[in-house]
Amino acid sequence: MPDLRALSCLACALALALAACGREPPHALGTLEYDRITLPAPAAERIVEIAVREGERIGVGARILTLEQTRGDAQLAAAAADVARQREALDELRNGARSEDLDQARANLAATQAQARDARAYYARLQPLGARQLVAAAEVDRARAAAGNADAQVAAARAALAELDNGVRPEQIAQAEAALAAAEAQQRTQSATTGKLDLVAPRAGRVDSLPYRLGDEAPAGAPLAVLLVGDAPYARVYVPEALRAGVEVGDRATVRVGADGERRHAGRVRMIRSEPTFTPYYALSGEDAARLSYLAEVQLEGEGVADLPAGLPLRVEFDR
């Protein structure tokens, strides 16, 4: 008869082998993702054309949709007119005074000088009469004041002529140059905003979402389109606390795509967070710490991965 102890040991070994075969290797669960680019609305304008469909592949610079440009064109024209006005004002300062302005200033100076001579002569005639009390003292005072006022007007006219002869100050030209630069910057800003009313793809990829429809008017900054970009997708998984210590950036991994996990792809860890995604570590102790999860990304490699759709469930087994 066979040894009962040997049969018992054989049965235990077989049971352990079967249990080992049925036990799944350590893994992390997640979904298949692509890098996403969100294209915001540059202005609150109505959508007048949509050139693509959701799920369509597009290249760099492909037009996605067009916003109404009437208001943007008008604002750009206003900015261009302001630039022209500031440029003409700067040229006027640089060219200096016109000859007609100089002639007018000289004539004004001559007129004030004649008035001053007449006022001084009148005052000179009243002075002896006032001394002999033949005219009122107030009349003499008025004549003296008129003569002083006439001299002041002569000084003002002479200063105005000198200002025209000397030209504008360098500080005024610098201010005009700064105003022109500000107007040109505003024009460039408006031109860039108007140019963005034709929404184009900054990178090649696939149109994932178009939240708004033809005729909608999205607020400024709202996402008009979401693109999935990149040469290959990546697995976004949540690494359990028990595996976190053994996972580092650059580690090799096997990605099983789909609910059945039959499709296998090689991958490499490109990112893993050092802080837990869910419950903070300081709120857990003992067995509760095993509930921590750390967000990680595993880049898929090899042929055929670029055609995989986003959102598929997957399982990642780390080679370590």
From TrEMBL:
InterPro entries from the UniProt entry: HH_YbhG-like (IPR059052), UPF0194_transport (IPR050465)
Q: Which Gene3D superfamilies match?
A: 2.40.30.170, Helix hairpin bin
What is the superkingdom listed in this entry's lineage? Bacteria
The YbhG-like alpha-helical hairpin domain sits at 73-186
Q: What's in the GO CC field?
A: cell envelope
Coiled-coil intervals: 76-122
UniProt keyword list: Coiled coil, Signal
What is the annotated signal peptide range for this record?
1-19
Where is the protein situated, by its record's location annotation?
Answer: Cell envelope
What protein name applies here?
A: HlyD family efflux transporter periplasmic adaptor subunit
